[in-house]
Design a protein that fits this description.
heterotrimer; A mainly alpha (about 200); B mainly alpha (about 500); C mainly alpha (about 70); A: about 200 residues; mainly alpha; Cytochrome Bc1 Complex, Chain D, domain 2; two-stranded antiparallel sheet; two-stranded antiparallel ribbon; 6 helices; 4 strands; elongated; C: about 70 residues; about 45% helix; about 0% strand
Chain lengths: ~200, ~500, ~70
């Protein structure tokens, strides 16, 4: 008797069934969600990011930020995400509608970033933190991203976008640190991270 | 090699091989036919193992010493980490797995490696694809999808390679001479079929025509978990089912149990994927389905574990004499432990603590290293001397490899699992600050465990180096026997 | 909504159901007889049941593997 076709049928059916259940069904259920109009504010949510923020998202992706940071808020009383002020509500599929790729993350070596744009909206804080996390956050184990910045000779007056360092961290005198385009767009992306719109499915 | 090389015509009317002399010649012929192709595959996989180990050490060190190699953008943690994962998964584990699969298929089908050039070409494309992809990750072209980071310009090379391997698999199966299918062959045939299926589906749905919203996460983790469950696990189990009985000289304890084990694995394992997303922005029913499937996995896991254990029962003394047995038994026991641990981790109440912590990383390494890698080491220790008809040059170096790997991975798993649980408990307590260098905080309490992980990595690195030394040494010995055929000592009957 | 139910029943009932039916067919057609013979198929005259086929290269066993007492029948 020829086992072959029977075996292959078996192999195919087993994986096809899970594909139907775990991929096809969700796609049908919520794969074609659209943005909704929020009752309270009249705004459409979510909206596509600005060009700069979207560019910054590619920097986030290229440097593997997702390996230490999640972007998902768990429900109230499941974990302490909301108690830690990482969000006012849990995140749902609609929050990620315009994300390509969706970077939920699986590790919290660092804090969740879903609402970092609300939690920390100061551009200079973000730039200093990216340049050397230990300036703003002593004890941090986040890698420094100095390669997103340029060190150059300072002129008579500091450039408008030169980083302002607290004492002890400034570069050698006569030099200043200026963010590259990558650092700037990355910060625009981080500032865009907000997921607090009161969606119908989260009420 | 006295028997004439079997032609395809002979194989078209296969029957059980009765003649002893012909069977002996066939086995020797099978090993010889595999030699060059398998040496290429195993050599390449070991190279990736060493490279992946270096990057593992770099990544691990950076986690507690973030200024280490910090100013080279290509070596930032977020690029080194996926380099390590993909080098180990696609460079080392997959190639070792394919090599072991080929040898087992040839042996169990009692067919020499036909069309070896197909596999050689496939190996070339595979290594090229992995190399290009990994350099791309360091350059910042990662796709941002876990286990699928290799950029789209490299994946066509992997597809071509795999198409060739798939073709080879079908041809070998079609022209096999042994009609009975041993349990290992079901697992191997299934994995050869499943892997391209899930990989293609993932590439299409996530990269070529991406789905929207968190359906992406569903597809991502359906894929990533199935790489573990439908690609690596079957190869690992197929190996244990062959090598343990073969080494100790005793058949599998209960063959019917192995049938149950295989089909229950096939049925349940691939529904597990969503357990990576417990608590996440997905519908509750989706997560629940995967948790249920994860719990159902106790059926195949206990079945397989019982079968392996009862096969070994009364034979544990043989561990002293056989390096292959040590690696296989370590791997088999790790499979049982890590799978049962996985069932626990899938439960919502446990995941609430362990999700997002270093416990998850420890669990992944228990499956990929303590189970799969140790089994692959054992398989290579069995296969390579039979390909070359030369003994391993140094038993001492084998012992160094085994003990460094076994102790190293225990020093990796125990602290990191424990540390991860404590990390999760701290994270779930809003009174514990996330980061405060002067107090007990979520970040600072992980540091001792992260350092332990780095030190364990050095032990593992020594073990891998020992294996590489023996590999190069046995190759050198083999080359010597080629040059002086008339002076070679008679091949030991292995 | 109806399509959800169709697909749910399809993926959870029909597909695994077909697999189970195929399994039952295989059972009835004797695919699972002679299983013990299959368990022994990995052994032969060269490497029979009861003989270890791996050892450390510095083992002081005789190079020809010692035949161990035959294992009891499975």
């Amino acid at each position: 008797m020829n086992y072959g076709p029977l075996l292959f049928l078996g192999f195919f059916l087993t994986v096809a069934s899970s594909w139907c259940g775990l991929v096809l069904l969700p796609q049908i259920q919520f794969g074609r969600q659209q943005a909704v109009k929020i009752e309270e504010t009249g705004e459409i949510y979510p909206q596509a990011r600005s060009g700069l923020a979207e560019q910054g998202r590619q920097i986030y992706r290229a440097n593997g930020c997702l390996y230490c940071h999640t972007q998902q808020v768990r429900a109230q009383n499941y974990g302490a995400d909301i108690a830690r002020n990482w969000g006012q509500r849990r995140t749902v599929s609609r929050d990620y509608l315009y994300d390509h790729p969706v970077m939920l993350g699986t590790m919290r070596t660092g804090p969740d970033l879903t609402n970092i744009g609300l939690r920390q909206s100061d551009t200079s804080w973000h730039l200093l933190h990216l340049y050397n996390p230990r300036i703003t956050s002593p004890g941090s184990i986040m890698p420094p991203f100095r390669f997103l910045f340029a060190k150059r000779k300072a002129g008579e007056r500091p450039s408008p976008d030169a980083l302002k360092f607290p004492s002890g961290f400034a570069p050698a005198s006569g030099y200043e640190i200026v963010p590259n385009a990558e650092a700037r767009t990355l910060v625009q992306y981080l500032l865009s991270l907000k997921a607090n719109a009161p969606l119908p499915e989260t009420k | 090699m006295n028997a004439p090389a079997p032609s395809i015509l002979n194989a078209l009317s296969p029957s059980d091989i009765e003649d002893v002399a012909e069977r002996r010649a066939v086995l020797a012929e099978i090993d010889a036919s595999c030699r060059n192709t398998l040496l290429l595959l195993f050599g390449a996989s070991l190279t990736w193992l060493l490279l992946g180990t270096v990057f593992a050490l770099i990544a691990s060190w950076k986690m507690h010493a973030p200024e280490f190699l910090a100013d080279i953008s290509w070596l930032t943690f977020g690029r080194v980490r996926p380099f390590h994962l993909n080098a180990m998964v696609f460079g080392f584990s997959t190639q070792a797995g394919i090599g072991v699969t080929l040898w087992l298929m040839c042996r169990l089908c009692r067919t020499p490696l036909l069309y070896g050039w197909i596999v050689d070409l496939a190996g070339l494309f595979w290594n090229l694809g992995v190399a290009v992809g990994l350099v791309g990750i360091l350059a910042g072209h990662s796709t941002g999808l876990e286990w699928l980071e290799i950029p789209p310009y490299a994946t066509p090379l992997l597809f071509v390679s795999y198409a060739l391997i798939g073709m080879w698999g079908i041809l070998t199966f079609r022209f096999r001479r042994e009609r009975h299918l041993y349990v290992s062959q079901w697992y191997l045939l299934a994995s050869l079929f499943w892997f391209p299926g899930i990989y293609s589906a993932a590439q299409i749905l996530l990269i070529m025509q991406p789905v929207r919203g968190t359906v992406q996460a569903a597809v991502n983790w359906w894929f990533a978990h199935n790489v573990l469950g439908l690609w690596f696990t079957p190869i690992g189990l197929a190996s244990i089912y062959y090598f343990i009985p073969k080494v100790i000289g005793k058949p599998v304890y209960n063959y019917s149990l192995s049938v149950l084990g295989f089909w229950s694995l096939a049925l349940f394992y691939n529904w597990n994927g969503m357990h990576h997303l417990v608590g996440g922005p997905m519908p509750a029913w989706l997560i629940t389905v995967s948790i249920v499937a994860s719990v159902m996995m106790t059926i195949p896991v206990v079945t397989v574990g019982l079968n392996h254990h009862l096969t070994m029962w009364g034979n544990f003394k043989k561990l002293k004499d056989s390096p292959v047995l040590r690696f296989m038994v370590f791997g088999g026991m790790s499979y049982t432990v890590t799978s049962l641990h996985g069932v626990l981790l899938a439960l919502r109440s446990v995941s609430e603590v362990t999700h997002f912590t270093h416990s998850t990383i420890a669990h992944a390494h228990q499956g990929m290293y303590a189970f799969f890698t140790m089994v692959m080491f054992g398989a290579m220790y069995y296969i390579i001397p039979r390909l070359l008809k030369v003994e391993w040059p140094s038993a001492h170096v084998i012992r160094v490899h085994f003990w460094c790997a076994a102790i190293g991975i225990m020093f990796y798993l125990v602290p990191l699992t424990l540390g991860g649980v404590l990390q999760g408990l701290a994270m779930n307590n809003p009174d514990v600050p996330f980061l405060d260098p002067h107090k007990y905080s979520v970040v600072t309490m992980t540091l001792p465990y992260l350092r332990m992980r780095s030190y364990s990595g050095f032990l593992l690195a020594i073990g891998h180096t020992a294996f590489a030394i023996n590999f190069i040494w046995i190759l050198a010995r083999w080359v010597k026997t080629l040059r002086l055929p008339q002076l070679a000592t008679p091949a030991p009957s292995l | 909504m109806i399509i959800l139910w169709i697909l749910f029943i399809g993926s959870v009932v029909v597909l695994p159901g077909t697999a189970i039916l195929a399994f039952g067919w295989a059972l009835r057609h004797g695919e699972f007889e002679h299983l013990d013979k299959t368990a022994l198929s990995i052994f032969d005259e060269d490497e029979p049941v009861g003989v270890m086929t791996d050892r450390f290269p510095d083992s002081d066993l005789h190079p020809e593997p010692q035949a161990m007492p035959p294992a009891s029948p499975p």
